[in-house]
Amino acid sequence: DAGITQSPRHKVTETGTPVTLRCHQTENHRYMYWYRQDPGHGLRLIHYSYGVKDTDKGEVSDGYSVSRSKTEDFLLTLESATSSQTSVYFCAIGTGGGTDTQYFGPGTRLTVL
Amino acid sequence: GNSVTQMEGPVTLSEEAFLTINCTYTATGYPSLFWYVQYPGEGLQLLLKATKADDKGSNKGFEATYRKETTSFHLEKGSVQVSDSAVYFCALSGTGGGNKLTFGTGTQLKVEL
Questions:
Q1: Can you tell me the distance from the alpha carbon of B110 to that of B62, in angstroms, rounded to the nearest whole number?
Q2: DSSP bridge pairs for B110
Q3: Which chain B residues touch A96 with a CB distance below 8 Å?
């Protein structure tokens, strides 16, 4: 299995509070991704990173920010959580090549009350 | 933009039945195609992939063929087992930068004795 961990695995928070989710990899892959999974939508890309300090937006980036200060860590921050951000969040890693496979972490279940 | 359409679930089958889960896509260029599987409470695992037209991906008895003429990548298995019960996601990788994945909404498979 690809070495990907996510923390925390579960979190309950209140509307308006900041939340940071962490993804850590031991594979030294250049690309890292954050997706959210919601019923009826499959997985949708929030943000991704193609190197240290290099990030770009995905399909559903509003309300989220990311940072990557080291190759192995990719942080997702909800500056002011809303109930619509209740979801399961998955981190993925990959080499970024045209036929590349992405490998997924175990997920973080976030509930915003 | 890119999109993936999967058949609605849940799909309920008896053990040893034949499985087909339909997947069609819309994309520019020549994307790679993937099937991922998600067991309850877990992250996504790559099941199989195909990177060019007419390629057949296969793994654990599952198969899918990249059909460019019908823009399809249907998942098949000749004889399902209870342990195959999971949610299956069809996905394609973008041909632009970042190798971003676009997912279908997922199809839940339930296999009964």
A1: 16
A2: B12
A3: 98-99
Inter-chain CB proximity B43 and A48 less than 8 Å: no
Query: What is the number of other CB atoms lying within 10 angstroms of the CB of residue B18?
Result: 10
Residues B27 and B95: beta-carbon distance below 8 Å: yes
A53 touches B: beta carbon within 8 Å: no
Task: Name the closest residue on chain B to residue A39, using Cα atoms.
Answer: B105
Q: Which two tokens mark B82? A: 């209870």
Q: Judge whether B43 and B31 are in contact, CB under 8 Å.
A: no
At B1-33, the pLDDT tens digits run: 889 999 888 999 999 999 999 999 999 888 999
- Yes or no, beta carbons of A104 and B97 under 8 Å apart: no
* Class of residue A59 by CB neighbours under 10 A (exposed 0-12, middle 13-18, buried 19+): middle
Distance, in Å, from the CA atom of B49 to the CA atom of B35, rounded to the nearest integer, reads 6
- DSSP letter string over A11-68? EEE-TT--EEEEEEESS--SEEEEEEEETTTEEEEEEEEEETTEEEE-TT-TTEEEEE
Q: Please tell me the distance in Å from B103's CA to the nearest CA on chain A.
A: 6
- Report, as ranges of residue numbers, the positions in chain B whose pLDDT lies below 50: none
Taking only residues 94 to 113 of chain A, the set having a beta carbon closer than 8 angstroms to any beta carbon of chain B reads 94, 96-107
